Fold Glucose-1-phosphate cytidylyltransferase.
Amino acid sequence: MKVVLFCGGYGMRMRNDRTDEIPKPMQMVGPRPLLWHIMKYYAHYGHTEFILCLGYGAAKIKDFFLDYHEEQSNDFVLHDNRVELLNTDISDWSITFVDTGLESAIGERLRRVRDHLDGDRYFLANYADVLTDAPLDVMIERYHRSGATASMLVVPPQSSFHCVDVAENGEIKEIVPVSRFPIWENGGYFVLSQEIFDLLPPGGDLVADVCGTLAGQGRLYGYRHNGFWKPADTFKERAELDDNYARGIHPWTVWETARAAVTS
């Protein structure tokens, strides 16, 4: 299936200051940008046709792929001043770059790339700022089995805050970590059908306008994932991912896990 990635937001919570022109998808995690890790995840499961919804920082994203250096993350042989790659990252990827506007909402960005889906009945979508080790093949299979119009990955609450049960007189009855509540958060990985465009108005939102409506009709499926899931929505979160990568802790790199299993 084609993969629509929303890459056009300003990402203000990620940037060091207003002079930081690097868009959120291009922030580094290890030797590659966040966007590359997400695309590599999809490619591992065989989904290599990408549609990038661009906006802020579009030139940075385009330049990265136009001047892509395979040798930075692959073994190679240098002979007679020529590079012979022993592995490849993106040679089988198809990437469509679409300017969807600086101020467009997620739903509007999706509307503006609809023609690039080539009429495919089903497609995948992602906020391009979250990493996970969720089994995408199982997620898709469960979606089709459910008969739903759309599906989203849902994860346990990630907040470190506590909820407080306080009486009218100010007496605190109980303090409970948010993570202990039996609720689920939107994990940002979607499996969608073309039917969603019937519910998506100009300038609309994918979750509020589409998923909210489908949920009320029993046509939205949630794949519950208790494994690794980590957003990179802020500078601190991205720095934590980068630090863990340097220490060899990167459970989202499912392609490396699979390669290790084959060679062992």
